[in-house]
Amino acid sequence: MIKVETLNFSYTDGTQALFDINCEFPSEHIFAVMGDSGSGKTTLLNCIARFLMPQTGKITIDDQDTSGMAEIDLRNKVGVVFQRLHLFPHLNILQNMMLAPTLVQNRPVKELRKEASEMLERLGIPELAESYPSQVSGGQAQRAAIARGLMLKPSYMLLDEPTSALDARTSEEFALWLKELREDTSFIAVTHDLLFARAAARHGMYMEQGKIASQGVIEDVTAAHC
Ligand SMILES: Nc1ncnc2c1ncn2[C@@H]1O[C@H](COP(=O)(O)OP(=O)(O)OP(=O)(O)O)[C@@H](O)[C@H]1O
Ligand SMILES: [Mg+2]
């Protein structure tokens, strides 16, 4: 479980983006973080991933305080897929997937190639292996970015607007696809897409102006805000 306690975060220009945030993200779940533009969703993800350091409060991952964790332990535990995916355009999908484990874990290329191929097979997208990011659709790129993140076998994965480039049908398919992965990896998905949130997540929260306006079962949270 990821636990956030009395978190306050202000940017260097003085803008306070998060006010006394308390929430829990359980394992083996997909949790949806919803809310208006500017309500602090991305800031919260960045604090959990420790790309931003909150001024006060505490974040624990499986009972470990993230502020004291070694960088490599944190990155092995929490993966992040940003809205713009950041697939490397000059590498095919298989090469994209092998890059971080090669650099971070220093593992042999042959072994990683086998593992990456098996991962694409397991995720139902083996045909993407040799494609370059510019040759695949938005939905395929989204899956490829997650496949790449899963190569480091994180317990948790943070997704910022995973369906923003997808149409309604693809985003629903993507929700079902994600649900099949949640036993091994728990997902926290920031999303504006309420259909996706309902299809993918059992629990969620809604943020307003840096605070949590409501949290709980997804149907209740979405019903209260639409
Ligand atoms: N680098 C920054 N410097 C100063 N203020 C920032 C910075 N990044 C974000 N903010 C402010 O912090 C608040 C929260 O922003 P954040 O990006 O977390 O919102 P969001 O909920 O992710 O919005 P969106 O749905 O548009 O992505 C906003 O008021 C925003 O203007
Ligand atoms: Mg955002």
Structure description:
The protein is an alpha/beta fold and 226 residues long. The protein has a domain at 2-87 and 155-225: P-loop containing nucleotide triphosphate hydrolases (Rossmann fold, 3-Layer(aba) Sandwich). It contains eight helices and ten strands. The protein has helices at 41-48, 71-77, 93-104, 109-122, 138-150, 168-179, 194-200, 218-225, and strands at residues 2-10, 16-25, 30-35, 56-61, 64-65, 78-81, 156-160, 186-190, 203-208, 211-217. The protein has a six-stranded mixed beta sheet, with helices on both faces. A four-stranded antiparallel beta sheet has the order 2-1-4-5, covered by helices on one side. The chain is globular and about 45 Å long. The mean pLDDT is 92. Residues 11, 13, 15, 17, 35, 37-43 line the site of adenosine-5'-triphosphate (ATP).
What is the count of DSSP helices, taking H or I runs of 4+ residues? Answer: 8
Instruction: Outline the biggest β-sheet.
Output: 6 strands, mixed
Shape: globular
- Kindly estimate the percentage of residues that lie in beta strands according to DSSP: 25-35%
In the CATH hierarchy, what is the architecture of the domain at 2-87 and 155-225 at level 2? 3-Layer(aba) Sandwich
Q: What average pLDDT do the residues reach? A: 92
CATH superfamily of the domain at 2-87 and 155-225: P-loop containing nucleotide triphosphate hydrolases
Rg of Cα set: 17 Å
The ligands found in this model are: adenosine-5'-triphosphate, magnesium ion
SSE layout and pairing:
Blueprint: E1 2-10, E2 16-25, E3 30-35, H1 41-48, E4 56-61, E5 64-65, H2 71-77, E6 78-81, H3 93-104, H4 109-122, H5 138-150, E7 156-160, H6 168-179, E8 186-190, H7 194-200, E9 203-208, E10 211-217, H8 218-225
Parallel strand pairs: 3-8, 3-9, 6-7, 7-8
Antiparallel strand pairs: 1-2, 1-4, 4-5, 9-10
The structure holds adenosine-5'-triphosphate (ATP) and magnesium ion.
